Automatic annotation (TrEMBL):
The keyword Lyase is annotated on this UniProt entry: no
Pfam families per the UniProt record, alphabetical: PA26
Protein's UniProt name: SESN3 protein
Biological source species: Peucedramus taeniatus
Keyword Signal applies: no
Keywords associated with the record: Cytoplasm, Oxidoreductase
């Protein structure tokens, strides 16, 4: 079988891929506070917030393999109240993580027979943040549009042999095979870049794509070239059974979905610019007061053993990726360019670094690059081929993947910082 699309893209940076696969495998398949079927259902809920059929379909298959109740796949009305109560923080973390408070945490931990334990909640929060951020990568690299996993074909485990990317672990023949394939066939060649563009041009984005680009280009607030607000546009599911239930084709294979709204409540709730917040209700998140290194790492590792080490390795791995050519074209050092992208993403979520001059963002990042980064970060389901093509022109394919990995990790860390700070405040 061909390589699954996410690992194929991440394979351009094999050290990062190993780190990602270890984390993914640990979250989904190793010992932890949550039952295995619940883990995959939480992943479905998270991916549905961004209408990411690619991830929803993948985890539907894994949910059923783990012995999950097929009735749950009819929608939120058919799952246990304990799991359904997670919907509120799923919605907030996905779109406006700065709104999460210790009251949200307390509510989940104090609901009589449906209460969560702290360990279970930390596991769930990491899963939510992981899947939200992975949805950004899926849309940003065009994996959602890949034939066969965009809700149009049958759900087969697209992987090397019979191994799904959720189940792969680092240090095995899988990564070695990726290295062999990448040495043999580089997508950086002009021929394959042309093929990539042709594939992207087949996507049906004419109307929505043009409208979104106009909205993004009209937003000049703070001169940062930020995109227009775009919430999740999804129909309300009046009949819960009309949502994604695993349909069997004539060969007995699970087929794709037509509607993800049954996995969401309040589908119109989406990202809003942090700069437009109510000053009396929300304050800037200052990293010197609560950081991953000094606070988040120890808390998450204490409540969900070893996951902190895996996440920390992943954050460090993406920071250590080489980007000399990419930075050189922008006229700066690699570390400066990467920090500009990372801090720009955190800035969009209200996270600020006192030791950083944010004027550098406008100097380092061209307008179309910033529009692309904001769209993939804040409303990835709005990413389209026009933006993809305009952003990609001066980048090699491996560099495009690198930018999307920075988006993935910066976004995930932002969500974790807000959630873990709220848990810390509850505990205090």
């Amino acid at each position: 079988g061909r390589l699954e699309a996410v690992t194929q893209q991440m394979g351009y940076h094999p050290q990062y891929l190993d780190s990602f696969l270890k984390t993914q495998h640990y979250l989904m398949h190793m010992d932890g506070p949550l039952p295995f079927d619940c883990r995959h259902y939480i992943a479905i809920m998270a991916a549905a917030r961004h209408q990411c059929r690619y991830l929803v379909n993948l985890h539907v298959l894994q949910f059923l393999r783990a012995g999950g109740d097929p009735q749950w796949l009819r929608g939120l009305e058919f799952i246990p109240p304990k799991l359904r109560n997670l919907n509120e923080i799923n919605k907030i973390l996905a779109h406006r993580p700065w709104l999460i408070t210790k009251e949200h945490i307390e509510k989940l931990l104090k609901i009589s027979e449906w209460s969560w334990s702290l360990a279970e909640l930390v596991h769930a929060v990491v899963l939510l943040a992981h899947c939200h951020a992975l949805a950004s990568f899926v849309f940003g690299c065009g994996c959602e549009q890949d034939e066969g996993l965009g809700g149009r074909g049958s759900l087969k485990p697209l992987s090397l042999g019979n191994q799904c990317f959720c189940e792969a672990t680092a240090g095995n023949s899988y990564s070695q095979e990726l290295l062999r394939i990448n040495r043999k066939r580089s997508l950086d060649s002009c021929m394959e870049l042309d093929s990539l563009r042709e594939r992207m041009q087949r996507i049906q984005v004419e109307t929505e794509g043009r409208d979104e680009m106009r909205l993004l280009q009209q937003d000049r607030e703070e001169g940062e070239g930020q995109g227009a607000e775009a919430g999740v546009q999804a129909e309300h599911c009046s009949d819960p059974s009309a949502g994604l239930s695993p349909l069997l084709d004539t060969d007995g294979e699970v087929t794709g979905a037509t509607n993800l709204a049954c996995y969401m409540q309040d589908p119109d709730f989406g990202y809003q610019d942090f700069a437009r917040r109510d000053e009396d209700q929300t304050q800037v998140f200052r990293v010197q007061d609560y950081s991953w290194e000094d606070h988040g790492f120890s808390l998450v590792n204490r409540l969900y053993s070893d996951i902190g080490h895996l996440l920390d390795e992943k954050f460090r791995m993406v920071d250590g990726l080489q980007s000399s050519a990419m930075a050189k074209r922008q006229g700066c050092e690699p570390s400066v360019f990467k920090r500009g992208i990372w801090n720009y993403i955190h800035c969009m979520f209200g996270i600020r670094y006192d030791d950083y001059d944010y004027a550098e963002v406008n100097q380092l990042l061209e307008r179309m690059l910033k529009v692309y980064i904001k769209t993939v970060t804040c409303y990835p389901e709005k990413t389209n081929s026009e933006m993809f093509d305009r952003f990609w022109k001066q980048f090699k394919h491996s560099e495009k993947v690198h930018v999307n990995l920075l988006i993935l990790e910066a976004r995930m860390q932002a969500e974790l910082l807000y959630a873990l700070q709220a848990i810390t405040q509850y505990m205090i």
